[in-house]
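Good day; I would like, with your permission, to put a structural problem before you. What I wish to show you is a protein chain and, alongside it, a tokenised description of its three-dimensional fold. Here, with my thanks, is the record as I have it:
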Amino acid sequence: MLKNRQTTLVSTAANIAINPSNSKTCNKRSASVFNKLGVIAAAVMAASMPAQVNAATFLDGLVDVNFLAMQNYQAIQAKEGAFRPEDEEQSSGFGRIRANLMFKFHINDFITADIDIAEEPNDFGNNGDRDFSFHNDYAGIEFDVFGLTEYKRENADLTLRLGNIGGSPFQFKGFQDGADNQGNALIGNWMTDYATAENGAQLRYNERFDSGVIRAYNVTGHITTSSFGEAFQEDRGFNYLLQGTLEFTGGFKVGLNFLQANQGDQLRFEDGVASLDGLTTTNYRFGDGENYNFSASPSSERDTHVGIMPGLDQTTIQLNLAYQPNENTSVILMLGQSSDDYTFADTEGNAVAGITYFGTDGVVDPEGTTFDSNRVIKGESSVEYWTVEAQHYVIPGKFYLAARYGEAENTSDLIAQTDNTVERLQVAAGYWFNDKTLLKVEYVDQDEGINSGGQIGAGFDGITSEISVKF
């Protein structure tokens, strides 16, 4: 649902983004961690990409058009002990092709409108993956406030966006959404990306400086409803995001993000348990879809993410640090914490570590079958997480290596604080055949503790690849 485009998530730091082509504390198992971090150090990744492909223009420059397509191939298996045993014996094969048709309309010098028409099975799901249909994946209207008010400021702009609003607590790194994948050096997004798009309004201010220690800064705020469609039911609240970034001389960047969802007033408790049936929860509770697919669930599932929080009264705070010593190399560190006032529960009101859990007839049972919870109880659920990502072009503009490693710890009040961590390692290589065509190959390994909130149940690993075009 969320796109790596100028008007969304990446645009909030468009003037200080780590990738110039995108004009979008936990206790540890020390031996395992150091081994994986050693892999990262050996595969330090790339920070820059070839210049973004220009859109075709029509009607004397009034309309810009981009077409994107991506085909993937994967050989991935869930690990022994997964919630759904059929995921442990998957066949390798090709996924469905993703395709996007993006339009940008220049209404006048100060107003633009955009729409992204997409066929993306890992987003809306398309009726259980059976139907093939294009849909409005992202659209909105943007107003140059300074231009409209004739309040001109040198090296600064203020933009109001109405419509679909993209947001996430991370910055400086590429994001992947279906065919729109060339801004992401790797293939997956992240298990705590908390990124999506909803309906609302966004105001962002950017300013750049020709000299000094601070070279640019950005402040962005938005208010949205918890839906990509329409949601007007009783007691449905709003979601708020406040985001700021600073770019310093020498390639250092800092970003701080705060996200607040207010959806808990919809709950109706009976014997201490409330159902989520018919409620609108924030789309930020899991994050946008990834291109790791499992046979036991539809491709629209978010089951590679950490599914700890119901997404009702959810609060997320994240700090992002980036360093780009040169145009071919970058390193990004992300530290965050997210919490909710409610915890997932089984049918008898027992707290469970995440939305997916082992159970018998809906009651938590380590030897039982698998259930997805649609009930909550009062009690804080929370996750603390960190991620490091790096990228390096071995051949500038042509061939890069990339890696990402991170951990997420389930720190929920009602969950046992043992075996409660998810870890993921991604190592990838990318090759640009030309400035329109990118091939990516990635190895991914995710480990999930039983109390971690991981939705596979034991984790997964394997090889996946994508080839994409954008023109």
